[in-house]
Amino acid sequence: PQLQESGPGLVKPSETLALTCTVSGGSITSAYYWGWIRQAPGKGLEWIGSIYYRGTTYYNPSLQSRAAISADPSKNQFSLRLSSVTAADTAVYSCVRHSPFQVPRGWFDSWGQGNLVSVSS
Amino acid sequence: DIQMTQSPSTLSGSPGDRVTITCRASQTISSWLAWYQVKPGKAPRLLIYKASDLESGVPSRFSGSGSGTEFTLTISSLQPDDFATYYCQQYNSYPTFGPGTKVEIK
Question: What pLDDT shows up at residue A101?
Answer without folding.
Answer: 80
